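$ run holo --ligand "pyridoxal-5'-phosphate" --emit C-alpha cells
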Amino acid sequence: MTTFCSDKLQKITTPFYYYDSVLLEETLNEVKKREAAYSNYEVHYAVKANANNTILQKIQQKGFGADCVSGGEILAAIEAGFSPNKIVFAGVGKSDWEINVGLDQNIFCFNVESIPELLVINELATAKQKKASIAIRLNPDVKADTHANISTGQKETKFGIYFEDMDKVLDVLRTCDAIELIGIHFHIGSQILKMDNFVSLCQRINQIQDHLEQVGVQLKHINVGGGLGINYTDPEQDPIPNFADYFAVFNTHLHLRDTQKLHFELGRSIVAQCGSLISKVLYIKEGVNKKFAILDAGMTELIRPALYQAYHKIENISNPQEEYEEYDVVGPICESSDVFNKNVKLNVAKRGDLIAIRSAGAYGEVMASGYNCRTLPKSYFSEEV
Ligand SMILES: *Cc1c(COP(=O)(O)O)cnc(C)c1O
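-- output --
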C-alpha cells in the first residue's frame, strides 16, 4: 500500500509522477511466483502501459519479456536491457523501418495483423536473408466487458485477422519462404475484471486449435495478450491484482498441447497501482452551486479521464485530518473535457495543497502531451524522495 510523505513531496515542483518502488517490486514478485506455478507460461510486459526507463529496467531485471507495439518501443525495451529473444511485436500498422528494427534485433516474434503485412515482412526479411518468426493475431470475436475504446477483440475493430480468413493466410504463408509461423496471438481488450471474458477467449482458442490441427498446422506458441484489470475505486483494497486466479483460468480452460508455451502480455495490471500523479491546488473557485478545485495538472499529464471517462481515486494528501467537502476537480487546460472528476469528496482543500491522483502508473506518464506548450511531467521513485 502506497503512503505519501507530503513534507518531502511538497519540495518537488508539481505536477510529477510518483512511483512506489516497493509496491512495483512486490507486484513483480507476485507475477513471477504465480507464473512459476506453470512451467510453460511466459509473461511479457506490455511496454505501452509505461515506457519510463527506470520502470522498464526494474521489470527487465526480474526476467520478464517485452511486448512492443512500435519500433520505438522495441528500441526502448532493448536499451533498458530486455533480451530481444523475449520481445514480441504487435500493431496493425508496422512501418517498414519498424519491421527492419525487429529483423535487425532478431526479436522473438512478429504478431501479424493482416495479409499485406505478412507479404511486406516476407519481402524485408528476404532482403536481409533472414527468417522472421511470426504469430498470426486472430480476432476471436470475444466480448470484453470494458469501455468501447479499450475493447479490441470483437468483429470490425481494426485489430487482428478474422478466423474465417485463416485458410487464406495459410495459403499466402506457403509462398513466404522468409517467414516461419510459430504461433497464434490474441488480445481482447483492457481493464477486464470479469474472468468469464477470459474463459470465453480460452474456449474460442480451443475451437481454433482443433481446426488448425485438422488442416495440419501445429503451433508451438499461444499468446493470449493482456487485459487483466485493476481496482481503480479502492487501490488500498487491491494494491496487487489477483494474478493467481487469472493464470488459473487459462490452466483450467485452455487445452494446451504437450510442448506448447503460453505467452501473456500484461501491462496495466503490473504498473497501474504503483504510480500516482501528484499535483498542487492552484485555486479553489466558487461556482454557482459547486466548488472547483483547479489543479496544476490536467489532461496533458493524465488523459484517461478525458479520453475514456476513466475513474481515478483522488486524495488531498496535505490535509488528511480535515473534514470532507465536494469539488469538481479540474485541470488548467483550455478544453472542457479537462476534468478529472466531478463531485469528488476531498478533505477540505486550499491553495498549495498536494493532490494525489491514484492508480496512474499505467497509460499515464506515457500518454502525456505537450498540448498548450506544456512541459512533459518528470517522475520520481519512492527511494529518491
Ligand atoms: C495494450 C496491449 C496489451 C496490454 O494490455 P493491458 O490491458 O495493459 O494488460 C497487450 N497486448 C497488446 C497487443 C496490446 O495492444
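-- notes --
The first strand starts at residue 16 and ends at 19.
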